[in-house]
Amino acid sequence: MSPRRRNLRLKMRYRLPLELELTILEIAAPPLAIDRLHDRVAFFINVALVHRSLTAWAQERLRDQFLYTYIPRPDEHDRLKMRFEAGFGRDRPLRRLYLDLSRLPSDINCRKECGSDSVSATINGRAYGPVSSPGDPGNLEQAQGRACEAVARYVQNGTIQVGKWEVCAMITAFSQALDMLWLKLPIIKLDIADLPPPRVLYIDDGAVDDPWGWFGLLPLASETVLFLRNIDISAQGTEHGYATRHMIFHSCWATEGSLSYVLDRFPHLETLVFFNTEVDHLVSTLVAPPASLRHVHILEHSIKTLWAQIDARHVLPHLESFTYTLLFSGESEPQAGADDGSERHELVDLQQAVESIIDAPHCSFKYVRSIRSPEDALADALAAVKLPS
Q: What CA–CA distance (Å, rounded) separates 343 from 84?
């Protein structure tokens, strides 16, 4: 027996029981968070290659989530079709979908008309590769056809209102049993309201530069936990009455109006979390949510919200918990110093302002300074109100 094989046998002889190994790997796996999904997939791929006893377990978890990033190439639709059919079907529905559509072109409506100059200009660019002879009608027609194929089969024009687009029928068909959907928005106005509402819906800014507030284009239900991240929230919408009861604002802001106007569109809200989100006036924001609100948690790196007294009635009578967490954002462990006294006074002022307008006899109020990482602090906040992180 070769020395290499002998050493391998010696190493395998001292393995932990398989059940314990799998438990450790499960704990070590990156979480189901939008920024860690690709790491999670890479982790299980590596585990599958370590030893044959781990392969089936790792492959099963690889199918727990489907990650798709749109790339503008002529055979994109066929590539996606092959991936869907290889991993999912009637006996194995898709449960978790990551959909990055941020590279969908803004001139998608022009791509559907193969005679358009917009198509040929784009296909001759780097996105679709060069055409050998732009002046050759035959090559140009072929290039335009490839450009149309790259987008026209992927999204279809919305039938209700002009300017809205829907995902293609194939994505819709495979998304009928989603538990979690992570969506990076395209620059076009995407309408996915006809999808069955998932338990968790995570919306990221993606390619959107303008204020966004198209809540009516989302598949929302009362049980849907709605995450909004890196979005300039538009408060100009007129639609109201959304059924969603749980909302998390992650690094959001509002350049048009105030977030308080956005909250007014969700009359059944029960859980509200602000993480690193620009709240223009904390007291007025707390006046805006409906009386149904039961849990509020605000996490900030500095006490920058304004809490000047306003003529506000007593609000949120059913509130059960209000937590304000001042996040630590330094590179080293926090040290006691002059700033501690200033922060304590600011927290006391904040407490007085908040509790002067909230009339909730059974509410627990907490004002804390955290030394955990912002990501861990947010995960703790969501776990405290029994929401997924």
A: 53
CA distance 300 to 196: 34
* 186 close to 104: Cβ distance less than 8 angstroms: yes
Strand partners, 65: none
Report angle CA 151, 154, 157 to the nearest 5 degrees. Answer: 85
Residue 263 CA to chain centroid, in angstroms? Answer: 19
Identity of the amino acid at 3: P
Confidence bin at 274 (pLDDT 50/70/90): very high
> In b/e form, how buried is each residue of 1-21, taking b as 16+ CB within 10 angstroms?
eeeeeeeeeeeeeeeeeeeeb
For the chain, domain boundaries: 17-64, 65-107+158-331+340-385
Whether residue 115 has pLDDT greater than 60:
no
Look-up: residue for tokens 């954002």?
A: 329
For 190-231, the pLDDT digits (tens) are 889 989 999 999 999 877 878 898 999 999 999 999 999 999
Q: Name 356's Cβ contacts closer than 8 Å, sequence gap at least 6.
A: 309
The whole model's pTM is what? Answer: 0.83
For residues 267, 268, 273, 274, the Cα torsion angle rounded to the nearest 10 degrees is -10
Distance CA 318, CA 309 (A): 22
- Cα–Cα distance, 87 to 289 (Å, whole number): 42
Structure tokens at 40: 């999670």
pLDDT value, residue 229: 95
Residue 238: how many CA atoms within 13 Å on its side-chain side? 0
Per-residue pLDDT for 159 more than 80?
no
| Nearest of 193, 231, 185, 226 to residue 212 by alpha carbon | 231
**Are residues 189 and 210 in contact, defined by beta-carbon separation less than 8 angstroms?**
no
pLDDT > 70? residue 112: no
